[in-house]
Write a structure and sequence with these properties.
Chain B: It is an enzyme of class 2 (transferase). Chain B: One of its GO terms (biological process) is tRNA wobble position uridine thiolation. Chain B: This is Cytoplasmic tRNA 2-thiolation protein 1. Chain B: One of its GO terms (cellular component) is mitochondrion. The structure holds two protein chains of two kinds. Chain A is built from one helix and five strands, in the order ββαβββ. By secondary structure, chain A is of the alpha+beta class. Chain A has a five-stranded mixed sheet, with helices on one face. Chain A is globular. Chain A starts with 5 loop residues before the first strand and ends in a 5-residue tail after the last strand. The mean pLDDT of chain A is 90. Chain B is an alpha/beta fold. Chain B has one domain: Rossmann fold. Chain B contains 14 helices and twelve strands. A six-stranded mixed sheet of chain B has the order 5-4-3-6-8-7. In chain B, strands 1-2 form a two-stranded antiparallel sheet. In chain B, helix 3 links the parallel strand 4 and strand 5. In chain B, helix 7 runs antiparallel to helix 8. The longest helix of chain B has 20 residues. The C terminus of chain B is likely disordered. The chains are: A alpha+beta, B alpha/beta. At the A-B interface, strand 4 and strand 5 of A face strand 1, helix 2, helix 9 and helix 10 of B.
Chain lengths: 119, 424
């Protein structure tokens, strides 16, 4: 992987978040393989990258349904990670994968599910 | 990070961290533990009895979809002997409820359950789209909440069912506890934290079992029976996070979109607070629920501990009534005549959850002028029936009929027969 390269990341949105991502429940995006400081891109960087480059939201930062003004995933949104090296193909709570520190791999599946809407 | 093994089976990879105790579980163990805990809630509270027909308040959202799925599973696994029916309310919100009802229709097929849809249009002569075009987006949640509670009871009565279960989860309960604390409404807090609530029948009960005669013929309930509905919340202790994960890992088909009309600002803030607390200390949600239950024990039964309510639950955002707190209970109306009324009215305006302002203009609703400022006095609820529709009410006219009166006055040619249910 070159320093300036990108890696494909599979995304899945649920619970209404897809409305801010082209209304697509699943999509694959090319994400820089290194973050601003040159470190391998991790989940925290992915969230920042999605917020700044992919998400379609034009309201106030304090009402952003995906991230808080501090740039963290909004409480109430579940983040699940499907590590391509795990043979079971299942999604795990990102708390089990180091949360924001999880280093992205090509074809990692990251799923964001909002639990904030009615039920 | 190296994969952690499941804390229970020690073999499979853990996929879930349980919020209440940080336990790491694999998928099969999580699904089983989740279901078993709901079973435990059902049995320890003796929520159901064999042969009972249960209507599941189904919005197509995650909570009611998980509730329907889990109840179906448990009914088969533990042989509860229940007949489960899906009951959906069509508020008449184009682009929101019509879409979610499609989900419920699929669920009915997937779970092999009968589905009954009751619409605001048929019940009240007003869809929410029409209400909003009349009253605007601000405050429309009041109408939706008040109408929904009655609609669920009426729908259950139409089905000949006396027991409605709703998908309220632990996060919803914690929100409601906080909201009622912030309003200083202990009687309401006591009522809404209860796992079972009843709208007691003001008249004699029909002498039947499960809404059928001895010959097994289903009785079409009369106007009385929609005031005799039991409500319960089997998911009361289930974390929203786990409900979402359960739906994900079971690949359940649910609908999730924000209601297109205005959200409740006060509930939204309570919700954000709960979610922020959960991030710091996940057990906080259940702790708030338990605290609410303990506080409820301190409230004398006649003020709310009796587990009865009149059109008290409601609120915005989901077909089955997001949580108690959307509309103030009947106590609110009584309180308006009390000394503390003025202060409470101000609160009510801020939270947009009581009757619209114009109904407060009625002479009988006005607070006593010059009354000495004292500590709030809670009056005992005296339940009767609405003189127009027969629904349980502490006033001569129930809240839904009062709201309808305001709507119909403003409508150029008022429809006749708006209070359907008189003749059902």
């Amino acid at each position: 992987m070159s320093d300036t390269g990108t890696i494909p990341i599979r995304l899945s949105f649920g619970g209404g978040l897809e409305a801010y991502f082209s209304n697509k429940r699943t999509q694959t995006v090319q994400v820089p393989s290194k973050d601003e400081s040159g470190a391998p891109s991790n989940a925290a960087f992915l969230i920042r990258y999605l917020h700044e480059n992919i998400m379609q939201y034009h309201g106030e930062a304090k009402n952003n349904p995906f991230v808080t003004p501090e740039g963290d995933v909004r409480p109430g949104i579940l983040v699940l990670i499907g590590d391509p090296d795990e043979i079971d193909g299942e999604l795990a709570d990102w708390e089990l994968e180091g949360e924001g520190a999880y280093v992205l791999k090509p074809n990692t599946l990251v799923s964001f599910i909002s639990s904030l809407h009615g039920g | 990070m190296p994969a952690s093994p499941c804390a229970l089976c020690k073999t499979s990879r853990a996929l879930i961290v349980r919020p209440k105790n940080h336990q790491k579980l694999c998928k099969p163990c999580f699904l089983h533990v989740f279901e078993t805990e709901i079973h435990h809630t059902i049995t320890t509270n003796a929520l159901f009895h064999r042969g009972e027909r249960i209507a599941i308040g189904a919005s197509g959202g995650k909570d009611s979809t998980v509730l329907a799925s889990v109840l179906k599973t448990l009914n088969e696994r533990y042989d509860y002997g229940l007949e489960l029916i899906l009951l959906s309310i069509d508020e008449g919100i184009t682009g929101y409820r019509d879409d979610s009802l499609e989900t419920v229709k699929r669920n009915a097929v997937q779970y092999g359950m009968e589905l009954k849809i009751v619409g605001y249009g048929e019940l009240y002569g007003w869809t929410m789209d029409q209400v909003v075009s009349q009253v605007g987006k601000k405050g429309n949640c009041t109408y939706c909440g008040v109408f929904r509670r009655q609609a669920l009871d009426r729908g259950a009565a139409m089905l000949g069912v006396r027991h409605v279960v709703t998908g309220h989860n632990a996060d919803d309960m914690a929100e409601t506890v906080l909201m009622n604390l912030l309003r200083g409404d202990l009687p309401r807090l006591a009522r809404t934290t209860s796992i079972v609530t009843k709208t007691p029948n003001a008249a004699a009960k029909m002498d039947t079992k499960d809404g059928r005669t001895d010959d097994g013929i289903e009785i079409i309930p009369d106007v009385i029976s929609h005031t005799d509905i039991i409500r319960s919340k089997p998911l009361k202790y289930a974390y929203e996070k786990e409900i979402v994960l359960y739906a994900h890992h079971k690949s359940l088909d649910y609908f999730s979109t924000e209601c297109i009309y205005s959200p409740e600002a006060f509930r939204g803030s309570a919700r954000a607070l709960i979610k922020n607390l959960e991030r710091i200390r996940p057990s906080a949600i259940l702790d708030v629920v338990r605290s609410g239950e303990d506080m409820a024990k301190l409230v004398p039964a006649e003020f709310g501990g009796a587990q009865t309510e009149e059109e008290g639950e409601g609120g915005c955002g989901a077909a089955q009534g997001r949580t108690g707190g959307g509309s103030m209970g009947s106590l609110e109306a009584k309180l308006r005549e009390d000394e503390g009324a003025k202060m409470r009215e101000v609160e009510a305006l801020e939270t947009e959850i009581t009757l619209p302002i114009r109904t407060k203009g009625k002479p009988k609703s006005k607070p006593k002028k010059g009354a000495p400022t004292q500590a709030k006095k809670y009056q005992k609820q005296v339940m009767g029936q609405c003189e127009r529709c027969g629904y349980l009410s502490s006033q001569s006219v129930c809240k839904a009929c009062t709201l309808l009166e305001g709507l119909n006055k403003a409508r150029p040619k008022a429809d006749i027969g708006i209070v359907v249910g008189l003749d059902t």
